[in-house]
Amino acid sequence: DAGVIQSPRHEVTEMGQEVTLRCKPISGHNSLFWYRQTMMRGLELLIYFNNNVPIDDSGMPEDRFSAKMPNASFSTLKIQPSEPRDSAVYFCASSFNRRNSPLHFGNGTRLTVT
Amino acid sequence: AQSVTQLDSHVSVSEGTPVLLRCNYSSSYSPSLFWYVQHPNKGLQLLLKYTSAATLVKGINGFEAEFKKSETSFHLTKPSAHMSDAAEYFCVVSDDTGKLIFGQGTTLQVKP
Fold this sequence. Notes:
Largest interface: A-B, 17 and 19 residues
Structural class of chain B: mainly beta
Structural class of chain A: mainly beta
Radius of gyration of chain A: 13 Å
Number of helices of chain B: 0
Strand content of chain A: over 45%
Oligomer: heterodimer
Strand content of chain B: over 45%
Helix content of chain B: under 10%
Radius of gyration of chain B: 13 Å
Number of helices of chain A: 0
Largest sheet of chain B: 6 strands, mixed
Number of strands of chain B: 12
Distance between the termini of chain B: 41 Å
Distance between the termini of chain A: 36 Å
Order of helices and strands of chain A: EEEEEEEEEEE
Largest sheet of chain A: 7 strands, mixed
Shape of chain A: globular
Shape of chain B: globular
């Protein structure tokens, strides 16, 4: 299996622009998670889906952030408009929807907003 | 509520010497605990997990961790550090909904 695939690996954009991050989970996994990692706050869960349905989005910072999962093999995280404080590494992870099932992480997207 | 505390933000060892990364947890029930490793510019990778079976858990790359309920600890150890072990390590506890709660991480430096 190719693992969790995220694109792009790096994204540099200007403040105010829309940013879309993409994720392809491992085939067969039915839970998908979006995390953000910064030096200041560490790893933060933004949102997670079970069977393509958003279950908990309490970690989404504000309305500028939105996430979708139109099917079992694709998810997007969108920031509109982007701000410099959104600069971080964004990780997507997937797992089976079973208690204690480990997460499999992608290699992340490093976002820089200038 | 569940929580996890990694007691050291940075640990430095010499190659070939033992590694100890400390983790304490707080949980209102029998927890599930994990250790993940993150190498530079990579995602997190599962090292090992504890789910109420054997208290001594063996993971990949020679790492192991011991669940000690009396001490609410789940420290990660390795008998002999290798240069490739240099990375960030995260202790993780699962809450009662199955959501993972990550510690702040410990950076392991391995000196030649």
